Structure formats: structure tokens, C-alpha cells
Amino acid sequence: MRQAPHSPAGETDRKVTVLTSNRAMEHPVGSHTYRDRIAVVGYGYWGSKHVRVLSSTPGVDVTIVDGRPARLSEAAAHYPMARLATRLDDVLHDIDAVVIATPPGTHAAIAHRALESEKHVLVEKPLATSVEDAELLVKTAARCGVQLMVGHTFEYNAAVWKLRELVRSGALGRILYVDTARLSLGRYQSDVNVIWDLAPHDISIVSYILDEMPSCATVWAHSHISRQHADVAYLRFDFPRSQTRAYVHVSWLTPNKVRQVTVVGEQKMAVYDDMSDNERIRIYDIGVDVQDIDAPVEAHALPVSYRTGDIVSPYIPFQEPLLVQDHHFIECIRTGSPPDTPGERGLEVVRVLAATDQLADVAGEDVVAGADVSTDLAGTGSVPVPPAVNGHRIFHSR
Ligand SMILES: NC(=O)c1ccc[n+]([C@@H]2O[C@H](COP(=O)([O-])OP(=O)(O)OC[C@H]3O[C@@H](n4cnc5c(N)ncnc54)[C@H](O)[C@@H]3O)[C@@H](O)[C@H]2O)c1
Fold this sequence. Notes:
Bound molecules: nicotinamide-adenine-dinucleotide
Radius of gyration: 23 Å
Distance between the termini: 35 Å
CATH architecture of the largest domain: 2-Layer Sandwich
CATH class of the largest domain: Alpha Beta
């Protein structure tokens, strides 16, 4: 394996500011003489964005690999300097790293081939479509001594960093629940259902801001159009340490586009709206208090009282998350430091997705999994849990 040399002293190349891991740092992109040769496999909707970002990154030579010649013609028109190939094998001897942006079902085989050839690999989400494949990738990267990173783009998003800071600082109070909605008239995928396509983002965001993986998943999913893969799903994830829940709604079959994460705390609530241009995070100083039952109240009084205050929208500096992510990958290749979203992180998310898998893939059926009736997370009450029959089951992610 070829390792890029570190920046020689005295070089004066310009520095660009890269936001990475909740902090802005001076990153000497382009400040070394060695050029990183990166192949992007899959020049589709998302791969073309990787190519745009990497092509404009100093010190990077891009090779575009796509099995469809028509996609390569399109790539050649936009990036005349890029080298093109229809097969990764044809260029493996001549590159240092691979970015994989092909359909999820192909990730494991392509990534495994690249890792075995001692190339650093960035795989788009989800890392793989089975726990076994994801585990194999993690092990192979470790054995071959190369970087394996997963493209959990939202973990490189300044708005998500802000949400995490709000939760961790206690500014919202105890987190009562998190709600996410990722809806649109989406691109139906042929090899995965809507959960594997969209929920990796929500699982990654929520577990990142709560700093914990869920222990239990509950799923409702249905295939309305194709009868092949579920296109609408509602999921619930339980987080034991935080004693909270996340409700995740993903859909390819909704007329308007929604990309929203709501964190409801006892003190305040925060909404991250990824569709907003200038107010991506709003913090609502509002809450609901239970009335003191001993207090003398009117017979018609509500059982709760409302607190209302300011709505604050903090300034979030914008830097394209994909650019931050890809620059971080390059930084890890150059310095040998582990990625913020290593293969192990991708594996954690795949484990959760796999827990929903068996039931949500039942074509044409209403699918309900995880009939968890314990409504009392504090454990003060006890409600009997029904037996797991007829597709009504509790699925633990690990
Ligand atoms: N991080 C994000 O926000 C985000 C957003 C969208 C998509 N994605 C991910 O990116 C990946 C690609 O999604 P997409 O929407 O761009 O798909 P797409 O169908 O638009 O593009 C996939 C491309 O890969 C090519 N391809 C397929 N198999 C190949 C192979 N074996 N070798 C070479 N080329 C091959 C196809 O010809 C196609 O051009 C998926 O894993 C998806 O989950 C991530």
C-alpha cells in the first residue's frame, strides 16, 4: 500500500478551512506534492456529487468508474480531465482510494475487492445490506491496514453538530422524544426498501446526537406501489441509557419534501429543518408542565400548563456536508488518523437496519414488528408483553 507523505516543511500552499467533528480546523488540502488518486465507483445521482467535490479538491486526481457507458459519456462531458473506466478492476493498480456510490446491494462486493487490494475505502450509506457483509468489511480493512469509512453525511453536517451540542449541554432538558421525517416523492430503489434507503440517515443522526445506539426497534412498513419493497415506514427506536425514544417516518410516496428532526426536551424543543435556507435550527423555549394536582384549580382547568417564550434560530455556518465528509476522508488517508465514521460505525447502523429487515421485506403485506407495549420507560408500571406471533415481534438490534 502506498501511503501519502505528510506535508513537507516550508510548503506554502493555501490552506482551506474544513469543518470536521464539531470544529473548524486548518486543513492543508493540497499542501503536499503527492497527489491522491481516488476512484469514484458509480456516477449516478450521488456519485456525481462526490466527483464534483473531489474534482475541485487540490491534490486529488479522480477516476470515474461506472458500468454504464452512457453514464461515462455524461461524466466525460462534465469532467474532461477525469480518467474513465467501466470496471474498477481495470484501474485498481493505479489508484490509492475508492469512493463507492453504487446501489447498496453492490457495496460489499466492491468494497471487499478494493480493501483486499489495499485501497482506502469510503462506502456510501448503508455500509452493506447484511450484518455479515458489514462485519467482513470491518475485519478486512483491519487486516489489510487501510481506512474504511462510511458516508454518514449528516454526521458531517453543522446543523446536526448544533443539535448534538444542544442535547449534550442539557439546554433542552431531559429528552422526552425525538421525531424525524424524511419524506418525498422519492427515487424508488430496486435493491432495498425505503428503510434501508432513508433510515440510515435518521439512525445515524439520532444515535449521534444521543450518543447511544437503540436497543429495540419497532416497525410498521408497507409496500403501496411496487409490491416489491416497502415504500412507507414508521419506526420506533428505544434508547435505554437516555430513556427516550425516536419516532422515524420515512417515505418515497409523499407529495412534498420533508427533511426534519424534532428534539423534544422537558425544558425546550429544537427543530432541524434541512429544507430551510437560513433557519435550519430553531430552538423553541416552550414546554408543558403537569398541573399540581393539590393546587386549587377550576373544574374546567387543563391538566397541564404551557410555558411559552422566545424562538431562537442560531447562526449555523454552511459548508456542504459532503465536502466536509470527503475532505475528512482525504485527511484520514493522508495522516493515517481514524475516520469519525469508521466501518464500525457503519456496522452499528447496519445492525439496526437488519433488525427491521425480516419483517419490512414481506412484499405486499402490512408489516408490524415489535409489539412493545411497555409504555413506562421508567419501569414503574408493568404491562404484559404479548407473545411474538404472526409477525408481531420484538426485534432487538443486538
Ligand atoms: N449520503 C447521502 O445523502 C446519499 C444520498 C443519495 C444516495 N446515497 C447513496 O449513494 C449510493 C448511490 O445512490 P444513487 O442514488 O446515486 O444511485 P444511482 O442509481 O443514481 O447511481 C448508481 C450508479 O452506479 C452504477 N453502478 C451500479 N453497479 C455498478 C458496478 N458494479 N460498477 C460500476 N458502476 C455501477 C450505475 O450504473 C449508476 O450509474 C447508494 O448507496 C445511496 O444509498 C447517499
